[in-house]
């Protein structure tokens, strides 16, 4: 037991202050000070409303609003003394406001509670992060589009099972990530629109008997409307969970791309060269250039998804309305947001800086009998064979090339005819990788013309 006096903000019924351990487990000021600007914006909107509807005098409202700006500048200037005894950002700000403006500060908390206050602050903070994610995604998509446009017709191997499958174009591969990140972008926008309801004025849980104007505060804070149920408003953290869900899926996409960059930049592949700006060296092996940024991006999904699962576990089983468990919502979201933004920015930088090695890509594109499907399709199209039979004939030709240690285009016409007598010289037209990709003109296919059309569509969409 400490001999400290009871909390000045809520300690009316308490004879003694908290144990030091109680203070340590209870306080959130160590991390929720990140929401200072949002807390002050919320309080300024609330004070303006209290003044406008006559719950407090217009004079007091003005004094409070001015005082809050002073507090904000102290926090931003780094001179503010945060106190653990005052628990959280809400009470730290209000206590300091009292020191700055005196008695009117005590009227600010009329018709509200820390429960709607923290929900409002956190929503405003997460909303800003949705906006930051949108910018980060747009920048990364732009970098990918630039790569796709430059290399719309560069051939490379396409893989399934990480085994050579069919030739594709560099631009097509880049555009695959544009599609993924485009879905992330639309998830960000969806979730942001859904979360944009104001909890402020829900008060502790039941609303308030004061004649507050919730539309006014909602509007002042850029919300579309006030949340319609006060119990839900103070106990909802769906917006944070959706944020983490969207972030997790996006981080998974970034992780897949990062993995490809790690593979592609290896000496065995040499598909891309990452810039020095996004690589590191080894302290012992002088030849090394390591794709650390890609590796770290590959890993970020772990902590971001961890935050998603973590907050879900915090929320599950909580009875309505507010419970202190919910204070555990912030650190994980802060960490996930920081790392998501960092991963987006690092990936954008890497993509802008990286060089695709056209020769290595082209050399690899033809390896592994990558045009075998083109050969089978030719047998179907020109000789009228059922695809299953064509598949079988092509398989025999692949086996023959493998035995001879050559690629499919290196077989002679008589080699071909020894497997099927009707094959003509025209077959060699489809065995080249450039012809192979050019022929894949189906909508969404890898043909350069399709890739350019898709890149144009995205440029148009993002205008
Ligand atoms: N620091 C608290 C949190 O982050 C603020 C809300 C506290 N409300 C309460 N009734 N104790 O959730």
From TrEMBL:
Metabolic or biological pathway: Amino-acid biosynthesis; L-arginine biosynthesis; L-arginine from L-ornithine and carbamoyl phosphate: step 3/3
One protein family per Pfam: ASL_C2
Protein's GO biological process: L-arginine biosynthetic process via ornithine
NCBIfam families: argH
Ranges for domain Argininosuccinate lyase C-terminal: 369-438
UniProt domain Fumarate lyase N-terminal: residue ranges: 12-306
Keyword Cytoplasm appears in the UniProt entry: yes
Subcellular location: Cytoplasm
Annotated catalysed reactions: 2-(N(omega)-L-arginino)succinate = fumarate + L-arginine
Name of the protein: Argininosuccinate lyase
EC number: 4.3.2.1
GO terms for MF: argininosuccinate lyase activity
Keyword tags: Amino-acid biosynthesis, Arginine biosynthesis, Cytoplasm, Lyase
Top enzyme class: lyase
Organism from which the protein derives: Pseudosulfitobacter pseudonitzschiae
The keyword DNA damage belongs to this UniProt entry's keyword annotation: no
GO CC term, one of those recorded: cytosol
PROSITE patterns linked to this entry: FUMARATE_LYASES
InterPro entries: Arg_succ_lyase_C (IPR029419), Argininosuccinate_lyase (IPR009049), Fumarase/histidase_N (IPR024083), Fumarate_lyase_CS (IPR020557), Fumarate_lyase_fam (IPR000362), Fumarate_lyase_N (IPR022761), L-Aspartase-like (IPR008948)
PANTHER family found in the cross-reference section: ARGININOSUCCINATE LYASE
Family: Belongs to the lyase 1 family. Argininosuccinate lyase subfamily.
